[in-house]
Amino acid sequence: MFRKLSNRFIKQLLTFSGAVTGIAILFISFFLFKEGAGLFKTSTIEKGYVLIVHSANPVGKLSSHQIKEIFDTEITNWKAVGGKNQEIRIFRIDDIFNEYSKTEIGENYEHLSEKLAEVIQKNEGIIAFLPHQYAPINSPSVKELPAGNISVSDYFLGKEYLPTATPAPLFGVLPLLFGTLLVSIMAIALALPLGLGVAIYISELADERIRKFLKPVIELLAGIPSVVYGFFGLVVLAPIVQKTFHLSVGETAFTGSIILAIMALPTIISVAEDAMRNTPRAMREASLALGATQWQTIYKVVIPYAKSGISAAVVLGMGRAIGETMAVLMVTGNAAVIPTSIFNSVRTIPATIAAELGEAPAGEAHYQALFLLGCILFLITMVISVAAEMISKKKNFKPV
Amino acid sequence: MKKHILILLTGISLLSCNSKSEETNSTGIEPKTKVETVQIKGSETVLPLTQKAVEEFANVDSQLKLIVTGGGSGVGIAALLNNTTDIAQTSRAIKFGEKQKIEEGGNTVKEIIVAYDALAIIVHPENKVSNLTREQLEDIFTGKITNWKEVGGEDLKIVPYARETSSGTYEFFKESVLLNKNYLSGIMSMPANGAIIQSIKQTKGAIAYVGLAYLNKDVKAVHVSYDGGKTFIEPSFANAKNKTYPVVRPLFYYYLGNSESKVKPFIDFLLSPTGQEIVDEVGYVDLR
Amino acid sequence: MNKKIKQQIAFWIFRLFSVLIVGILLSILGFIIFNGIQVINWEFLTTAPREGMTAGGIFPAIVGTFYLVIGSLIFAVPLGVMSAIYTIEYAGNGKVVRFIRMMTNNLASIPSIVFGLFGMALFVNKLGFGDSILAGSLTLGLLTLPIIIRTSEEALKAVPESYRSGSYALGASKLMTIRKVVLPSAMPNILTGIILSVGRVSGETAPILFTVAAYFLPNLPDSIFSQAMALPYHLYVLATSGTDIEASRPMAYGTALVLIVIVLFFNLSATILRQRMNKKLRHN
After folding, report:
1. Which of A172, A359, A374, B284 is a plausible cystine mate for C117, CB 3.0–4.6 Å?
2. Could you report the per-residue pLDDT of A105-164, keeping only the tens digit for each?
3. What is the distance in angstroms between the Cα of A1 and the nearest Cα belonging to chain C?
């Protein structure tokens, strides 16, 4: 009786374990998207704060970008944002302590609100950035600027990434996305010829002894931790790149690509080599019997036959490069601009998450924006992994 | 072969038993019963000071366990908010809004200044420029000046480096030097001070800022003027102490009112003459 | 003739590439070993960092990494092996197996930083473990699950069908057969996967950044709810922060060497084990 029960229990346990990876994926996507999606329900202006102008000011709404330019004093006149010809005066909550003494404001800020109202009344060109709790919204000379939510297009099409700008942070993803893609694509471009050459060598030319030696070499390359690659890149490679190309900076997208290329090589080599080895012997021999040289056989028969496997290798290598964090964080300089050359510094998505997540207060816009970056990364790698599976299933050999 | 595997397996299982028993020991509700643990989290700038103080403190009092983590001033304050640290070490004052959030939770936040730090503006040792005004610095870091020849140097592109956004140094520099304006978008940002020094050493056109404690022979500190170029002051220990060097800031510890008794022994140690000696050793300015 | 020359050129290029790969590996290893070996001594391996990380050793980081490895194995090995047993021995029809395999592949392709995000959201914040060995181990365990599942599946597949039939013929039930016959003979190969994942876990940085890693701890962790130092994070810290980058450089080299030795030792043993097993199977 007991035996039966325990058997049944074990079976259930096994079934559950079978589903465990699926469950994990579900959980991961659920948590990432739950945290990330909250961003679009968050106000453009920092949580708990309001932007306030004088009620005589005709300006009704400002975009995040306009707010940034005003607070950076790049826009100094209300005319530029559709208001009167009037000097803009920026006012932050901490400025109140320069206008009034501690006693006037009160020990527990009990008079803070009315003092703020006074300041606003006196300055028609004011724009004040105040905590919601003390904002004198009901006072007659005060007008609150309505804050919209962060929009999907702001996020996905934004060209500026300033996550800690106050009053309105900017979370444009484009510089990060382009940075990530540039570094990864360049890494694959560097790694592919090299990886294919080595794969051909191992599968077609090398004798048993050399193969036995090269295999562990490749596994060792795959085994070196990413942080060690980063360290090597920072100390050795960045100065070399800087000197070789006479650059002003050594921490560039190119430096990152070299490191990523080395990291993606093992994946590319082993997948491509597997695919080549699976070429039926009969086909090779037929080609050789028809008088083709070994090299002709390789590029006329073996490579076409292994095409899908090689494509899968490229895709998987790309996936590896896109998701790489530590190595890239340490060598690419992390500048959040859309790169115009391979010698620019770039900031990749994974490096951004690693550098900023610790600081972002849980549940606020910045934190959500980073989770959304995680979602983007998750989706990209999912697509890649499914694509690799589809490609390697296809046997698209056509006799030439 | 079989034998080897057996030995390996027993080894692994023994180890796992070990850690298993550990798991059953701790109740999981309140794992810190015997020894009090104090978490200190936050600023990279204060890190060397805290770390050394913790080392020394361990010789004085082994009853209190201290855990030190970096991450940046923002991280420290955020952790204080989320109740995941006991002390937040910061290189900027707590913001009004941050304070608000803590007080909304019905708690008070206590502030202690533990030392002062001067922020040095550093360039490559071969750079000819050795004096800069605040206005020039502002233009450099907001991207209005892009070539060294505009500030009296050679014809060379300026490469400004900043710290990551979580750092108090980033915020303090933004407030004090840039007067709250944003850095140029796409500034190179480095996760920590050591990485900044490393990059400045390698990059001829570079300019960055680090705490006084981080200065070494690989970089050159420029003299700074806050009075429109009348007097240029060298960032040095003495000048920071007599308050002539303008870019000086206090370094803080913040803790919640209800954990005062827990953190007091360590903070008292740091404020004692012995503790303040450590401040000097690490390269900051003591409170005396 | 022309064909022959082309072939020669192509083949020499491939040889050159292979030499280049070996060269890359040797230069990275050489750089770490040459600089690190001067720092490594007994004190370095058995004491805590001192003088603001410019002296002393890395003992707490070694211990922390050890705990994380053990913790992640406790979580991942039983689950991974059982998952493999289910797919190989139970999930008869192709669709289920294909789906499970696809999920495993997907999990394997997720970048480690995303695991870090997830670990922080679920284990640290939602379940309230805080930054702790527990949270870090669970995150790392998830990360190595695909490795363990894959290698265990291979191991189970390699067990000859005749073993199973023999066991059934003697009247054993399916579970009995798996427990007494299949698992013991697959064990060595399953071990390979476990060893491989040890190598992987001990070198990962991104997943532990927000789940467990501490910058400095004067004492060793005493429960699964304490934070811990870890080798890869320690190397990151030494390479990028510290007041005196010159003085902490040697410490960084030493840490990198210890880390690489640990990781590569496990990876190589897995490779050697696998080769031996394959030989054995062929002999049978």
Report:
1. A374
2. 877 778 888 888 888 888 888 898 888 888 888 888 888 888 888 888 888 988 888 887
3. 15
The two three-digit tokens of residue C66, written as one number: 């050890």
| Span B244-264, average pLDDT | 90
Question: Helices B260-271 & B47-60, crossing angle to 10 degrees?
Answer: 100
Tokens of C274: 């696998």
A224-281 pLDDT, tens digit each? 999 999 999 988 999 899 889 888 788 899 999 999 999 999 999 999 998 898 888 8
For residues A46 and A166, the answer to whether their CB atoms sit within 8 Å is yes
- A167: preceding bond cis by omega (within 30 degrees): yes
Q: Which residues fall within 8 angstroms of residue B280, CB to CB, at 6 or more apart?
A: B286
How many C-beta atoms surround the C-beta of residue C56 within 10 A?
A: 18
SS3 content of chain B, % helix, strand, coil (to 5): 40, 25, 35
B24 pLDDT above the threshold of 80: no
Q: What is the largest CA-CA distance in chain A?
A: 100
Residue A31 has which token pair? 């948590």
pLDDT per residue as tens digits for the range A316-325:
899 989 999 9
Please identify every stretch of chain C with a pLDDT value under 70, giving residue numbers as ranges.
1, 93, 242-243, 280-284
Nearest to C268 among A216, A326, A382 (CB): A216
Inter-chain CB proximity B189 and A355 less than 8 Å: yes
Predicted pLDDT at C284: 54
Other CB atoms closer than 10 Å to residue A15's CB: what's the count? 15
Residues B153 and A70: their CA atoms lie apart, in Å, by: 32
Q: Nearest CA to C111 among C234, C207, C233?
A: C207
Strands B206-211, B159-163: pairing is parallel
CA A214 to CA C29: how far, in whole Å? Answer: 16
DSSP B245-260: SS-EEEEEEEEEGGGH
pTM: 0.87
Q: Which burial class, exposed, middle or buried, applies to B258 when counting CB atoms under 10 A from its CB (0-12, 13-18, 19+)?
A: exposed
Note whether A198 contacts C21, CB cutoff 8 Å: yes
Of B85, B240, A233, B252, the closest CA to residue C215 belongs to: B85
Contacts of B among chains (3+ CB pairs under 8 A): A, C
Q: What is the pLDDT of residue B35?
A: 66
Cα separation, A129 vs C96, in Å, equals: 57
Helix (H) or strand (E) holding B89: strand B87-90
Tell me if chain A has a CB within 8 Å of the CB of C58: no
CB atoms under 10 Å from CB of A62, counted, come to: 26
* Assigned token pair, A68: 């940034």
